[in-house]
Amino acid sequence: MSALSLQTVIGTTTANPNGFSSHEPTKTFALCAGSAAILAEVDSDDNITQRFFRARPTATPINPVTSFYNQATPPTTPDSRARCTPVSKSGLTVGSYRASPGADGSDTWSSRERIKAVTSVDISPNGRFLAVGETGYNPRVLIFSTAKDSPLDTPLTAITDHSFGIRSLAFSSTSQYLATLGDVNDGFLFVWAVSLKNGTAKLHSANKCTSFVRDMCWMGQCLITVGVRHIKVWRLPEVTPSSPTKSRFNGDSHASSPGISPKALSGRNCVLGSLSENTFTCAASISDTETVICSDTGAVCLLDDSESSQKLNLVKYVDFSITSMAVDFEQGSIWLGGPDRKMEKLLINDLRQLVSSKPPSPVPNDREQPIQKGKRLPIIAMGFLTSHIVTVDASRAIHVCPTEALNGEEDKECAETSLPAHKDAVLGIGPLKSPNPHESDFFTWSCSGAVNFWSAHGRRQVSKQIELEQLSSNDDDVPNELKILRATEDTELFVSGDRYGVLRVISAKEWKCIHEVRAHGAEITDIAVHTDPTTLLVASSGRDRMVQLFRKAQDDLELIQTLDDHVGAVGQLLFMNEAERLLSCSADRTVIIRERVARESNGTPPFAFIMSKVITLKASPVSMTLAPDEPDMLILSTIDRHIQRFEVSTGKQIHSFRASDPETGDTVVMGSLAAAAEIPGQSPNLLLGVSTTDKSIRVYDLERGVLLNREFGHTEGVTGILLLETQLNSANAPVRSLVSTGLDGIVMIWDLNVQQQEAWQGNSREEDETPVKELTAAKPPLRRILSKGELAGLQKFDSPTASPTPVREQSPPAIPRRPSRHSLAPPSHRTGHKSATPPPSASYSRRSPTSSVPLEINRRSPSPPSPRGKTMNVHHRSVHDLRRSSMDLRARTKSSEFGSLNMSTEQVCRTLRAYRKKLHGSSEHLRAARELQRELDLTLRALSERTKREDSNEDSDTDSSGKENDRKSSHTVTPRRAHSPRITARRVPSTPSLRHSRSRELSRAQSLETDGEG
Hints:
The chain is of the alpha+beta class. Among the domains are: 1-82 and 103-210, YVTN repeat-like/Quinoprotein amine dehydrogenase (Methylamine Dehydrogenase, Chain H); 211-242 and 262-421, Methylamine Dehydrogenase, Chain H (7 Propeller), CATH 2.130.10; 805-893 and 982-1011, no CATH class. The protein is 17% helix and 34% strand.
């Protein structure tokens, strides 16, 4: 069994303040990362440890909550519209893939198995709960326990009342209420009563909210929502017990909340005045009656609700657009964040004094519009942790900065405590061999040309940038992107390809482009690099159906050959056997294998690649890789959801299986294949890949084609995976980790563990002299399909008589044989009597003699007895019986040899001869050599014992047969007339005479059977 456990996440998908939350007493903060929520903790040494909370779509919460508005929906199912699925009379859901405990709804692929992104998080003020909100159709609100020993994949409660995405989450100051706001399309605001004992949630109140809300916070017992020209105060009603008949649907709502129905959540908008055109971006409560609200125009407002008046006061303006805010209650201050990583600190008492003093002058018109954004990306979320401030900017980088180093300015001193990441989609990953100049284990690149070098633990060592050329800025032009990047084995050069088909060679030390060339007329899809002591080969493929082969000459790339064998876009390239072979797969459903040829010319050995084999597939290939232990084995994944293995030297398919899930039976398209070698006694040969169907990472047993594990993490397309192996010491097995990149800008590092199985301990057991007896029930069933020749031979013995009728064997029906004229004429020249049988009709004369015999016999009248004719007929019949019995014996012997011991012996001999030739010409490691030697020893032992038994039996048979022959020769006194047929049978005439005599014998045999004297 394989296990993928998430160890490190680089980057975040937090896009607004709703996706970030901090808890000052425990120095923890929460972020969104794909389909998981990160709970990070900062220790005293400024080290950051992460925990990842995520739940599968089929995860069952510890405390099930029945939906109030959709009673038929089970709490374990995110599909709140399950009532539209037809249900059969037996209670089973029609069309469901598999049953889950307690689930009555549909288990369709779209609603059950599709992972959803996390868009909002919030930590309760008591630090015990973490609320996670999903996006998409029928999302969930998951409440996890933050205890150290709590499960990370099982929530305490799952709320499924929203229909379209969760916009924001907010715990009240007492942690007893949780507000959940749906997306604009959802339009609902729910307040849930949360039990502090076990985290159970019950619906307290609800109302519609269709405004574009940017942030939400609690102010005492009031809820504040701010957004686009929107500030609203929602007040909790006093809930009193009422009849359960007041629920919207007459179901079993009282089962989950007996006697309590949700009340309407009353809300009232604030008077904005001169701020009516502002977009309010963030809000933070500073007391039970005061809240600071900021806008994108730099306005800082104070909402006062001391007398339930909800008065909004404009305090001041700052010189930048405010995008985020954090409150420091210990020092009584607030921190404002904006573009270009600008930060400003304001004292809360100063804000109160400004409100109580004379109101400010009228606001200028130019401040009513959003301030022009800076060149750098803004701070989108921030939180205060006692002595540190955590910020998340739009580049997805996380900075943990001491407050002493800021002093109200940019956090330039915080580079050593930052967690950088890619600010846009990550398009690929590549390995690096150690040692290398950057002391890194792998590198990643993004579409903007950013290249980051990482350690195996997820720490960024260095970041570089590849400059991309952009065409004239027209609306129809597609911006250029970095599509592929490869490094040489010595990590001295990097080769990149972009969307415009430009190939660049970059020096790793100076990180500058030393050569560039337009290699393709369209996007470059793949680059293969091979380095040897004499030359550097670079092969590139593109969507223009071309494969270009370059050789490095000093600092330039020299074009060696252009290969235009494909008729579709070329997807991937591979060098094999020290660049002796070049493989390319294309969308035209072919894999072309090319061989390298060279010749001497003027001291320079030019070379080229010529096509040797073409593997034609039933569907277009998606990805390909080489087997780790078998360099001649190619592994392919195709778009028809198959994974196939081919032997490159012969082009033959060795194995094929469907990439399916045994639990659901669903099949997926696999991409970004990577193979892992076998670890004796621990792990079989593994095949790792990415499912483009459900964005999961899958681990398969390569030999058996069985899915070992699959995990979800990315919410967008997974662009690549890389297998890292770290050898801690020579005694232990290597430690494996898997790195995945996605279009969501996230880099995830997984720990790959394969539990030890008894099935893989077979090679390590002691070799017994006596083989272990295999269970009969475990053996394959016996099969013996008789061929047409065997069945035709068995048709001769259908007659119940003791002796077979001497009739010639029937000819195949496809080649009818014309009967001889001699067989139709009466044999008067031998017997002197004419046959009384009339000549056959024309219809039966077309048939073969065999098919016409039964009908001929039934039509004839009996012939008169003749002593001479009878004697001659007996003579001919005896000769025919002897000749026919010998032919039948040969036919039966030949047909019975199929599957016999002699035929098996010949097959084993041929197989051993072929195996010896292959054994002498190969140097690969034999994993089953000891088992083969044991089987050969046992076979030789059994063969020698059989030979001894046969020799002893032959000696005894020789003695007995000699005495018997002497006894028979002494008593042989038999009349000559009785043995005349036997003597005549040994004198077989020539072939022409045999044909004529056989036809006459056949006619006489027919007359004998009719007379009843045979």
